[in-house]
Amino acid sequence: PGDLYGSAAASVNRTAQRMQSMSPEWPQSNGPREEPDHEPSETFDTLAGMLDSPSTEARVRALEGLAEEQGPDAVAYLVQALADPERAVREAALAMLENQDPAAVSANIIQSYMYGSPDVHAAMTSALPGLRQVVEDDVVQRLRTYEMSHGERLILVHMLGAMKSSRATETLAEYVWDPRYPQLAVQAAQALLQAEDPAAARHFPGFVQHANPTIRWIGLQGLAQHGGEEAVRTLQQVAAGPHEPDTRIREAAVELLAQTGDLDAIPAMIQIMQQRPALRRTTAAALRYLTGQPFGMDPTAWVQWYREHIGHWQQQQGPYAQQGPGQQGVQGPPPDQQFDQWGTPIPQGQQQQQFDQWGAPIPPGQQQQQHQQGQQPQFGGGSQPRMPTPRFAPPSQPGSVGGPQTGR
């Protein structure tokens, strides 16, 4: 009975769904799609017609012929083929686009986002990493120098994120703080999270102070992704400090503290369990993920385990160094109060059910035997429940921009 981790996981999934509702809409064009300014040849028409063939081989051969034709018309068909249901066709189109004009390729991808279906959006996002060498320079140049609509700018920023571009870090960071375009700010923050650029890490601590809760959420992801002492310290402050008004973001900070794998965060997490009742279940699941131990929402048991197997409270560094749970100045239950796995106080004189490191009840008498045998606790790794890193989904419907999601 009582898979605490599973219960907390369900809660976090609901949190992710609520946070995704904060995501802005993706503006789409209401005007006509650009048409080619010249008539295609008869051979071109024949090859284009072959793309409707039920034969995968015929469609691939048609793409080969269109690639030899060159020109914007050919590029348009090659880009459309990136959404073909057959993988062989998509791979052929991707390979042939490597030798096409970068400006034409990126222009057609932009049009696919503006006019395409959700399936087309997903196909473009999946293909962009493979087209990074082809279109990255053109997309960066467009973003910095071209006059464009707000919708086009959103799409360009999304493309940079999908490509994990490291070429526009500072430009994206400026968009995050531009109050005129809140939709663009969220998309730019997400692109920075996806960027393969170590320089992006210095922007995430500031994001946790942003007025937009989705951007604060992204900032937490970036801190955990890049790690380091500052990341752990900031996650602790967001989870336990007085400034974050959104419980959902505090929950995310607790989860991400566990995912850093930093055992020095354990004292802060135990204190969060005591001082933040709304976070107790999430914190218990995070502690179990980090340590493999099954003490649930019993802070006294966590303190005892920590002292026996990790170290003394006074030896810890950070904002909670000299004041561990249960010490003077910390509001918590009496130091001798026992709790069950769900955090319910156990009446005095009743023996608490013990659990092994996987959460299974230990029959009476075996707990003492394990202690006498000197078995040491296992924490981290193994086959214990894992708390997967929250991720961002590509656009799943017209007008959507990827928002925070977690999976279990």
**Which term fits the overall shape?**
elongated
Percent of residues in helical segments?
40-55%
Report the biggest beta sheet as strand number plus sense, adding barrel if it closes.
Answer: 2 strands, antiparallel
Which oligomeric state applies? single chain
Secondary structural class: mainly alpha
**In order across it, which strands form the biggest sheet?**
1-2
Mean pLDDT across every amino acid position: 75
Number of helical segments with 4 or more residues: 19
Distance between the termini: 20 Å
Unreliable stretches (pLDDT < 50, length at least 5) are 1-26, 313-345, 355-359, 367-408
Strand fraction equals: under 5%
Number of strands: 2
Order of helices and strands: HHHHHHHHHHHHHHHHHHHEE
* Radius of gyration from the alpha-carbon trace, in angstroms: 27 Å
Q: How would you sum up this structure, described in words?
A:
The chain is mainly alpha-helical and about 400 residues long. About 55% of the residues lie in helices and about 0% in strands. It contains 19 helices and two strands. It has helices at about 5-20, 40-50, 55-70, 70-80, 85-95, 100-115, 120-125, 130-145, 150-160, 170-175, 180-195, 205, 215-225, 230-240, 245-260, 265-275, 280-290, 300-310, 365-370; strands at about 390, 405.
Summarize the SSE layout with pairings.
Layout: H1 4-20, H2 42-50, H3 56-69, H4 71-80, H5 87-97, H6 102-115, H7 118-127, H8 132-145, H9 150-162, H10 169-176, H11 182-194, H12 204-207, H13 213-226, H14 229-240, H15 247-259, H16 266-275, H17 280-291, H18 299-309, H19 366-372, E1 391-392, E2 404-405
Antiparallel strand pairs: 1-2
Helix pairs in contact: 1-17, 2-3, 3-4, 3-5, 4-6, 6-8, 8-9, 9-11, 10-11, 11-13, 13-14, 13-15, 14-15, 15-17, 16-17, 16-18
